[in-house]
Protein 1
Amino acid sequence: MSNKKHNVMIEYVGITIGCALMAISLNLFLKPNTIAPGGVTGLAILIEELIGIPIDITNLAINIPLFIVGLLVLGKVFGVKTAYAILMLSAFIRMFLILFGEGALITQDILLAAIYGGVLLGVGLGAVFRFGGTTGGTDLAGAILNKYFPSISTAKLMMLLDLIVVATAGVIQRNIETSLYSVIALYIAVKLADFIVEDLSYAKAFYIISKDSEQIGKRIMEEVGRGVTALEGRGLYTGNKREVLLCVVNRAQVAKLKKVVYEMDEKAFIMVTTIHEVLGEGFKEIKK
């Protein structure tokens, strides 16, 4: 199997797992307690509560026009993954309804339902986003808007749209607590989705200033297995020229790199910054 086919398979497995987690959240935590954490799924919960249309059917009906827009704006590859995610989410919702029954729930404590429902929803959404899809609704709308406003993450744009849905939920239910608990679930879901999309892939950049920069650089390349770049630096106070080493490592290599530096020079000056994405050799492949 080629590397490309293997990556595509992993992406679709990730999207599938994400949709399954979202369906568990909706079926066993949010829907039984009438918590509507924004989005089409949140609206679907309220619509089922009001007029009895199942949430999987509402999910498909609302997402069809959004999917067409997404296909035009985001391209065919994104569209295929989104279509797959929309269908899988509705399929899992229906499957869990059949398996666990209409009235199944894990807890009747609304706060616990909001927290754990939000956690599962966020992890599921994050997985779908991370592997290049959306499940339709406001996350698809958020992905479309992210195309035009790349400085704002898809999850945050989704949250803005979802707050409108959450506020509407309180009005429809004539119960402010519906909105308040829904906001808790929404906040947790967005924070976790953001974390999974961005922070799980973070790396650390080390800037090292030492009198033994040459030896330190060689040991880092040999023992840590990372490339090192020497930058020219000059102290403004002393006027002395000195090399500044730049090295980017993953989380597992942080402690090892610090150990190497301090073994060579206990007085070395080290600056460490967090990088949310690194592209290139040894890290994430640059996609054309």
Note: The CA atoms of residues 227 and 269 lie 19 Å apart.
Protein 2
Amino acid sequence: MKLVIIRHGDPDYSIDSLTEKGWREAELLSNRILPMNIDAFYVSPLGRAKDTASITLHKRKQEAEVLPWLREFHAPIMDINTGEERVPWDWLPADWTAVDEFYDKQLWHTAETMKKGHVYEEAMRVYSGLDEILKKHGYEREGKFYRAVRANTDTIVMFCHFGVECVMLGHLLGISPMVLWHGFCAAPTSVTTLITEERRKGIAYFRMGSFGDISHLYAGGEEPAFAARFCETYDNMNERHD
């Protein structure tokens, strides 16, 4: 089975939709998705993800099931430097790399800041939601792998957000989301693909074939958006610092 995870287009967070550029990105994305043989679409309840999916769904004359847990990962924490509420990712490198637990799949959520933010409870909601969908499509979680109860070559597509995408990938691949949040970057409308491997009868594991692919943007002559990235050098004052 193939699992395709798509981040929304360049966002206008003020209206929970897309920028003009984001709509162009979504159009180019739809041209890529249109010829694919897709068995089911799922989408976040947030506007920017729904709007990104809308062009593809309109062209294919299909609908997507809205999954509440597929919204952007929502577990606010208190910033250790400012004392203000913030998302649990986008930490300064000197801060998060100093905490050994953040590198551990089993311990990343045990840091005091994370516990106060109920991060693990929200992660469990995502883990459970993802496993429920995979079970619906024939793959049941058993320990750290999946039981292929109904092995198949279906393709399912999820339109969502970078934060929750990393939590899902962490669950599927056994990686701390903190490492994914800070070491990976999925640009707007990027496509991440995982495919099951069933090397022994009934035992399946999801293997990532591509992460954050934006070839559809290059094919359409559209530069990728800078969203989710930070300044490449400190002196680049036109790029985001914090």
Note: The helical segments are 20-33, 47-60, 93-96, 112-116, 119-136, 162-173, 177-183, 215-219.
Protein 3
Amino acid sequence: MEAIKKGTTIQSLEVGMGIVETIAKQGRPLRFSEIQELTQITKSNLYKYLNTFTQLGVLYRNKDTGEYVLGSKLIEYGMAAVDQENVIDRISPFLNEINGKSSSTVLFSTWTQNGPMIVRDFNNNRGLNIGAQIGTFLPIRSATGKVFLAFMEEQKIREWKAKEFMQISSDNISQLEAECDSIREKEIAFAREPLVPSVSSVSIPILNYKKNLLGAVTVVGFSEFIPQNEDHEISCYLLDISKEISGSFGYRSKEL
């Protein structure tokens, strides 16, 4: 994510949101003394913050127990965020940027009952036949397929996984399953010429705050221009973009 310059933020807001986050993380009603112990904010200041948030509806204070929970205003904000979670609209500027940076086709794929399907593409070089257009279902050995295999909930991909595994050898299945561990750790997948000769791909997951997979962004192009490991300049760039996009949906990577 883009670094924010020191001195350009309001410290009191940061402190206030820290209080709200503390209450949210506990997942249960908290008494004043518990919040004070967790935040280490002076009692007089904490009292002012809690009163303000309660008045605004950000927090709710039970009159009988005096305990604080998240308020109705946060529920309203959350619902508004869900309504605005149009993934394609939100990530399209990033796809366009990646297309320009990589000079290769960029795809965005989402999950369907028939497997991952391309729903958006950016390609300034329409003369390149990558064998995948909008509406194409991508196989499990593609970079996109590997991302879905690694991050999608097992119950959702069970049938697709079984069907795809029937078409490849047991050695390839073992290799895929081993590769998934690395993909989950590094959050990037590679595939060399899975669909078309001389055309390879690299893919990154888009995750939300629950670490649910929203889709995969994939760069496809001639093999000599597509990275095959995470140390490549384009790979590092994609990993940064992945963190930024997923961060906009509330996901926090283990490095943050």
Note: The first strand starts at residue 59 and ends at 61.
Protein 4
Amino acid sequence: MSTKIAVVGTGKMGSAVARFLAGTGATVRAWNRSPAKVEPLVAHGVIAEADAVDAITASDLIVLLVLDYGTAREVLDRVTGEDLAGRTIVGAMTGSSHDAIALAEYVHGRGGRYLDAALEMYPVNIGTREGLINFGGDLDAWDEWRALLDPLAGTSVFLGTDPALPAYADAALAGGFFNVAMGGFLEAASFATRVGLSLEDLRPFVRVALALLEDHLLNHAIPAIDSGDFSTDQATVAVYLRAVRIWREEMIAAGQRAGLMTANLHNLEIAESAGYGASAIYAEYLTSRA
């Protein structure tokens, strides 16, 4: 007997997940408020359902990829009686830790099991070596469904039994790191083209910088933070601070807003004021909390 799965919500990410799961040999039912978004999936072996309730009650694993947690709750509210009992719900929406906890309590209260999931990837990366999914919630559900959920991404991590953990990781890594890094590049690219450089001129440095960033994060920053030893014979907070002041002035003089560079300057100033001017830049970690 094949595994029975419902994918509720078939936007770009939901459609990618449904196609991949159908390719594993599972029986996949899919529903979307706009039926036209489900129709292309039929050619991939997905069963289109006109009603989300039918998809859910016919399945053992339900993957929610709707707009938000409020919409997920509205869908699940339509499932009557004990029909969630014994089923595993995976909430894969972007939301807050409070949203995840509330939905987990709701599902548990109706006899189901809940896993929260933060998909740190684009739809095109589903089922490939790229991408990461962070899971958190019911350990028994993870143990039962891990073999099926793991291949959705190159790396899948169960963070723990607290369903809020994926949302925390999402805010920290996708928001605080990746999104800010992408914004920094776009700010840099805007400045570069404003002053006569081409985007191709940036490519060699971006390649080198990404390698340096990975090396310094994995081999230097993490051990320094873990040990509390921020001594260095390389560039210090004070050295970075002086450079950032100059870089920011260049941007502003060229008519660039320099919002992220200004935020970077502010963080370095706080670190220096706290007495870490002679420390490695990783000492910013100590002064980044309010």
Note: The mean pLDDT is 96.
